[in-house]
Task: inverse folding
């Protein structure tokens, strides 16, 4: 009975979760690393950790309401081939007892292509890029929800998302700055739960996925370099 109840609550959770979980398409661990070269070219390394618990409920299969993320190598090749100046370097998929882990490495020719690759990695991510000779900036909004959760859902979410993080890092030859924002790209204070380096050659941010969901005004990242 308890197991059936937990599955019932989990299905309620899937219906109640905001767009950030749709963004992850049931990926509840996401890591993105960007290495920017001096000439504007660079490399993006992405890793998705897909929970087998959610997968077993059919979240990945036959759920057309969720926007797709590239999963197989052919998915990535198809997505990247549409972007001029981008190239898929490698793709891998491996299984653990709890997760399916999908990794991809993409090279890009310039910052505009970088932004296009990030957008192609999931159609729910919102990215704006601007740049000139010695000043570049991009804003990436990956949670625009203001959802509230009842006690049962919060308890279950704490269990499901334990150990799963959203992390992002950016490395460039010169000094960079990272600003955390709300969904409207307004600067916000760094959440106490976030591990963040906001200035330097490498800037980074890591938060538990549940803490990302709990940013009721949404959460985004702005990088200036």
Result:
């Amino acid at each position: 009975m308890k197991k059936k109840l937990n599955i019932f609550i989990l299905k309620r959770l899937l219906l109640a979760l905001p767009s950030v979980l749709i963004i992850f398409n049931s990926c509840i661990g996401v890591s993105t690393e960007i290495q920017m070269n001096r000439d504007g070219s660079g490399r993006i390394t992405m890793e998705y950790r897909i929970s087998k618990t959610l997968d077993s409920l059919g979240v990945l299969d036959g759920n057309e309401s969720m926007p797709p993320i590239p999963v197989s190598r052919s998915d990535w090749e198809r997505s990247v081939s549409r972007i001029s100046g981008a190239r898929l370097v490698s793709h891998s998929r491996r299984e653990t007892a709890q997760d399916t882990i999908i990794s991809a490495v993409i090279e890009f020719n310039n910052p505009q292509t970088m932004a296009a690759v990030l957008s192609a990695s999931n159609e729910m991510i919102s990215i704006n890029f601007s740049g000139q000779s010695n000043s570049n900036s991009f804003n990436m909004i990956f949670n625009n929800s203001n959802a509230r959760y009842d006690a049962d859902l919060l308890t279950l979410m704490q269990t499901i998302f334990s150990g799963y993080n959203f992390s992002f890092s950016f490395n460039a030859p010169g000094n960079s700055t990272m600003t955390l924002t709300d969904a409207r790209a307004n600067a916000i204070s760094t959440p106490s739960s976030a591990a963040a380096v906001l200035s330097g050659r490498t800037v980074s941010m890591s938060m538990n996925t549940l803490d990302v969901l709990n940013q009721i005004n949404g959460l985004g990242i702005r990088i200036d370099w």
